[in-house]
Amino acid sequence: MSKKPVVIEDLLKYTYPENLQYSPDGTYLAFQAAKADEKKNAYSRDVWMIKDGSPKQLTANMNASIVLWDDETHLILTREMPEQEPGVTQLYRIDVTGGEAQKWLKLPFGVRGMKKIRENIYAVMAMINSDDPDAYLDNDETRTKKIEEKKKDADYQVVDEVPYWFNGAGFVNGLRSALFIVKTGEKTEIRRITAPKFNVNEFIIHENKIWYTGNVKDRKVNLYDKIFSYDIDTKKTVTEYKKNDYSIGSLMFLKGKLYCQASDMKEYGVNQTADICVLKDGKLEFVKDPKRSLYESIAGDTMLGGGKQSVVKNDVFYTLATDEDHVQIRSYDAKMKEKVLFDEAGGIFFLDVSDTKIAFARETETSLGEIYEMNLDGTDIRKLTDFNTDVLKDKYVAVPNRVDYECGDEKLHGWVLLPENFSKKKTYPAVLDVHGGPRAVYGEMYFHEMQVWASKGYVVMYTNIRGSDGRDDAFADIRGKYGYVDFDNLMAFVDKVLETYPNINQTKVCETGGSYGGFMTNWIITHTDRFCCAASQRSISNWISMSFISDIGLYFGPDQCGAKGLFGDENTAKLWEHSPLKYADRVKTPTLFIHSDEDYRCPLPEGMQMMQALAVRGIETRMVIFHGENHELSRSGKPLHRIRRLKEITDWFDSHTK
Can you tell me the distance from the alpha carbon of 420 to that of 399, in angstroms, rounded to the nearest whole number? Predict the structure, then answer.
């Protein structure tokens, strides 16, 4: 008896856990659960709490997100409301032992992060305009007047720095991420502690000091960070690391010493894996090469929001790490002794740690995201939530079948999803799906779009090629090789799949990918006509134009193409060599283009150039532009837009394989 198919609209039924946070004493575990709201074409979020392994909904119809634990029993929340006052963050406080959320504190800026220093004193990271850095001091009348003045200029946008926009944030010209000290009580006191043009990247609290990274941004982006400390009592700022020679992140104190992850980007460029370093006498000293990305970089489309990638607890650093084709949980003690605490197939997306437990969100090959918990040593793993079991009940969920292959000296592997009741006596159409990044990975976990295609009768194939994450930097480094080693790997994989499953109809193999996968789609159609059709999503077609308009283009384009800069004939030639648009006169493949008009990572003209190059040559093509969406359309776009996107791609495949 056949099972029910996974259908595109199942996206509306999934629950997406987010933002795990233990209470200070570890008694409670709070998180958000997001669901699609079809009528509003948006997502609604409620806060849940787990005590003694039992989940319980804490808020309903509040559309709330967790900011932090204020003490052992009180959570600080924000709400997303249509009538929200512009430029203001209203915070709520709720007692998890009982009671409704109450208005607590209104801050005159958009909060990006908040940590408690001690009773009634908080460090807050928020956005400011560097031309009006003290706007937070405005009274209501002045603030209202400025808002009205801004409305008069709504038809204009002035830019004078780069990047002037950023994916997911819109135009950011003049905006900076600043640090504030907020004192609560009978009267709220707010004080900015960073300079108007200074941009904060991250901050932590340690022994009455705020430690933070960042640098002055003046006209153009600065990839390097300095380290600073601010003493709450003396109100003095000290530059703890003064050089401009490392990209620095993941500040952490272990046994009283400040550690961080730092990359000089000299050997492997902007995607180089960061080393663990210690700050000693104003210098960063190398401690350990983790040899893997200490975060999750697994590709998927069924985890909506995020959470912590790493946590320091009792002088131990707990972190996610992408290894081969899955995500581990690792720990590092003060001597940087490494332990792998969890090492199973699938994806882990965020975690938190108490004195005795580690909680994490996990997805497997046949299950959607749920919350799990285990002991600090990785034993006694337990599943705590069961949000999505009923959604997939009686559904056909294809299990990944591993396919090993070789390309040159590389030993690689990928997977194939087979339709239900797959028979060697029948022929099947197929889809090759290419991940983004390129420094990302596919793994053995649930992927909605692939399951939809498998349910519709397609054989779906996907792989991790050179350039992917999960191995060392040498494997991930394809600078100056875009379109060469990666293309060869993909073609070798397709050859192996067709050899392994000879009943795939070789004249009905489709191809798609997004971001870097979109670049590869554009490259594939300009270098082979073996695919019956293709769907290029949020793509790059021209590295020259991308480098001058993308939010990361100035440094990412030349770096990845192996150019020494943006100017000069030699550099231009290198950028153009790796641009699919250069070879557009070769295209024969019918190609669909999917793009968002607020995608500032791979901006809209990248798709339009390629589509137009096909159209003027009479190649069958179609472009669907999603208004108000950005680079994250397939992962966190509005629910109905995500459905329309997947329907467009699936219909395109169907029309060229039936």
Answer: 10
